[in-house]
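Section 3.1: Structural characterization of target chains.
Under the original work plan, the team committed to producing a structural model for every single-chain target entering the pipeline before any wet-lab resources were allocated. The record below documents one such target. The sequence was received from the expression subgroup and is listed exactly as submitted; it comprises 162 residues.
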Amino acid sequence: MPGKRPALAVVREGNPGKRPVEMGVILPPAELAEPDWQETFPTVRDKAQQTLNRRAREIARREWRRVVPVLKHTAGLAEVDATLLSDYCVCVARIDQCERDLSTRGLQVEGERGWQKNGATTIVSQYRAQLKVYIRELGLSPSARTGLKPPGGDDDDSDVFD
């Protein structure tokens, strides 16, 4: 008789029998402090870059304040999630930068050897691929939310943090 499959194997291979899957480590909830976006997007001498960084700070700040309250309620947040959330917000801000560049300069720019692809197209593609990973990890898409269990959803007294 085969043994119990590891939880990750059940997640990876599927769970057609809808058997309960015991997963991972339970971490204590934490109040996450918003990062200082000035460190990530500093004020610089170049006026054009300064404007870009100011906008990126605002986009990251807005995204943090939009997502953190939702995640507190739906997934619960622990101190170890701060870096992932910060990276997610930076990713959203960088995508905004690339999209604005594409909108202002176009998909093709004139270079030394004539017209060529705007480098922002490659960069935004890479950031979007990473954004998909963050969205899945944080449960920010409808399909990703199906695998999340809200914090405090159980009424049993086996929680070590109660």
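The two ends are 38 Å apart (CA to CA).
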